[in-house]
Amino acid sequence: MFRFHDAPWYYLLTGADFEKQDEPDLIYVSAIVEVGKEAVLYVGVLNNFYFDKDGQLDRLILQRVKRRPMSADKSADGQDIERFYPVDGDSFVLRYSEAITLNIQYVKLTANEVGTVA
């Protein structure tokens, strides 16, 4: 199998390293970005990504994005409170240069879930 060693982002953001039967149906991206001197967590479904002229990751396009300030973490008593707020819009552009951290989550849907994801 050919592998583009100079394109690690491609493999991470497409799930190309998975065997065909194990390829993810969705890829979720979580990113912490500083907004107004406050850390904000954005979470959404990866729709596309782009590289700059030097081949470095430039931006991620996310859909179904939610956000929350990191200060709105779980309550002290461990109760999960509604912490995320939807971001209006069809496509959210996240510049890689503005991300403090990125988390990638691969999701494989079951037969029951396929029709429920919009």
Mean pLDDT: 84
Low-confidence runs of at least 5 consecutive residues: none
Broad shape: globular
Number of domains: 1
Task: Classify the helix fraction into a percent range.
Answer: under 10%
Give a count of the beta strands, DSSP E runs of length 2 or more: 6
Radius of gyration from the alpha-carbon trace, in angstroms: 16 Å
Assigned CATH class: Mainly Beta
Output the CATH topology: SH3 type barrels
Relative strand content:
35-45%
CATH architecture assignment name: Roll
**What is the H/E order?**
HEEEEEE
- Report how far the terminal alpha carbons are from each other: 33 Å
Count of discrete alpha- or pi-helical segments spanning 4 or more residues: 1
Q: Major beta sheet, specifics?
A: 6 strands, antiparallel
Structural class: mainly beta
Q: What is this structure, in a nutshell?
A:
The protein is mainly beta. It has a single domain (8-72, 83-109), classed as Roll (SH3 type barrels). It has one helix at 8-14; strands at residues 26-35, 38-51, 57-69, 85-86, 92-95, 99-107.
What descriptive keywords fit this protein?
single chain; 118 residues; mainly beta; SH3 type barrels; 6-stranded antiparallel β-sheet; 1 helix; 6 strands; 44% strand
